[in-house]
Amino acid sequence: MSKKIKCLVWDLDNTIWDGVLLEDRNVVLKEGITDILEELDRRGILLSIASRNDRDDAMRKLKEFGIDEYFIYPQIGWGSKAESIREIAASLNIGTDTFAFIDDQPSEREEVKFVLPEVMTIDAAEYKDLLHMERLTPRFITEDSRMRRKMYQADLERKTAESSFKGSSEEFLATLGMELTVAPVEKGDLERVEELTIRTNQLNSTGLTYSYEELESYITSKDHIFLIAELKDKFGPYGKIGLVLLEEKKDELRIKLLLMSCRVMTRGIGSALLVYVIKLAAQKGKRLVADFIDTGRNRVMYITYKLMGFEETGPDESPGENGMIELEYRGSGEKEYPSYLKFILKSS
After folding, report:
1. What is the CATH class of 7-136?
2. pLDDT tens digit string along 70-110?
3. What share of the chain is helix, strand, coil (3-state, %, to 5)?
4. What class has domain 143-345?
5. Residues near 94 by beta carbon (within 8 Å), at least 6 away in sequence
6. 3-class DSSP state for residue 118?
7. pTM of the prediction?
8. HSE of 163 in the Cβ direction (CA atoms, 13 Å)?
9. CA–CA separation, 288 vs 319, rounded Å?
């Protein structure tokens, strides 16, 4: 099944507006474009630009139309549009298999399709159908969805601040005033929780997705501890960015799922959540193990487990059903939360 689209990249000439800007400064927006951009933004679909144009002129025109704020990491120049999409994907830290590209020129769409066959390409003549396309229609629209663009724009401010900071990464993180709040998942969180399991690929310990109904069953289960993590700093909220699903047995605590949004990859959130779980297992006097499935994209999660003191179990350490590997915590000493992070635990 094709993945939901996370980012829609737009051409400009004869796509967002009628006409060619270099030939006529009086181009006009296509009918209904503003409403379409607003609704896609509300759905949490990020919007960007790959256009062959003079950047300053194009940005001035977008500002004049009052739609410049919708586009993040716009690539406007004279290079390849496929390379522009790659650049946007790298800046957003999301896979190109969740990208779509809309352009009026068949040759441009074909070039993108050849270089990046995983990118969905759309003829600009179909722009009025965008809101009805299945891959552009999320099952739920959450508060995090509605805030997604603004959260990425705050990320851009953070990156700008970090690039000019004189000092180590940890010293920079200490200036952010980060607060990580962990709380039991409640029914009102479930739409966001499902969204996280569907959208997160790189920082998902098993790559497994869960339906709303499956997730709901864990809230009331006496055998599970289901937690959601929310992060904020001086630049603003990151939103609800992490999940931990624990299965509790008589002598064992098992991490069934550890997941974080890719936006917090460099913030040490996985390590902080594991510190909490390690402390919880010690408090309960239980063996701590974790399920891991190598999806080809989540290697960083395996490394996180290893750095925190987890080792593979089993006589031959070979993957089980579905490629599942069991990891057991064999670390020693008291684990501490990152010094730059304030950890807040909320009870239900």
Report:
1. alpha beta
2. 999 999 999 999 999 999 999 998 889 999 999 999 999 99
3. 40, 25, 35
4. alpha beta
5. 6, 7, 262
6. coil
7. 0.76
8. 6
9. 19
